[in-house]
Amino acid sequence: MSKGLTGRVALVTGASAGIGRGIAAGLAAAGASVLAVARRGELLDTLVSGLPTGDGRKHATIVADLAVSSDVDRVISVADGRGADILINNAGSSVPAPVGTGESVWDETFAIQFHTPRRITEALSPEMRRRRYGRVIMLGGTLEPTATPNASTAAKAALAVWAKAFSNAVAADGVTVNTIIPGRVTSEQMVTRLYPDPGERARFAADHIPVGHFGEPSDVAALTAFLADPAAGYLTGAVIPVDGGMRRHAF
Known about the structure:
alpha/beta; Rossmann fold; seven-stranded parallel β-sheet; 7 strands; 15% strand; globular; SDR; SDR family oxidoreductase; SDR_fam; NAD(P)-bd_dom_sf
C-alpha cells in the first residue's frame, strides 16, 4: 500500500474491533501514526502491537468511554498534543428504539454518536486549519427509513447533516469532512448480535446485496485511507456508501 500518510497522526474512535479496527490497520499501513480509542483496553493493546512501525510511526492507545464528558476531554487533550490531523469518528453501535423507549437510551446514543464526534471535530479543527491540512471522516448509518425506530440511525443521520454544513465552513483552510455509510460489514456486532446465523447472513446477502455477500472492514478501510490522503483534497462534504450496492436510491 502507498504510504501517502507518512508523518500524519490519526485519531480513530471505536478502534477495538470491527470497522474501527480495520480502519486503524489501514491507516497505519498507509504510513500514519494511530491513536486508537475504545473502552476495551486489552483489545486496543493487541491492535497496536500488530500495527506496522517504521517511518517515524508512533502508535498509542487511549482507553476511554465516549459517553463520559471527562473521558472525551482527555481524548481531545491527547490528540491535540500529538497534533492529530486525521480524525475518524467511528464509535457507536446499532441501538433499536421501539416506541416507548426511555429517554436515557436516546440521550446516551446521541451523546456518543452525535455530540461526541461533533465535539471532538470542533476541538481539533482549529489546529488542522492552522496547519492547512485536516481530514475528518464520519462513519454513519443508513439514511433510508428502517422498519422500526433506531436511536443510532437518527443520531448518525443528524451527524451527516451537521458534517455537510461543517465541511463548508472549513474547506478553504484545507480541511475536508466526509461521511462513509457502511452496509452489512462482517464485524463483532454483525456476527454476534444482528446476524449470528451464517445461513441468515447468506440469505440476506442473496436477497438484498447486489454483490452477493457481506463486506469486510478492509473494504471500508480502503476508502477511509483514500479520503485521508492528500490526493483527496478536492473531495469534501460527501456521503459515500460502501455497501455492495444495497442502497436502493440512485441519488
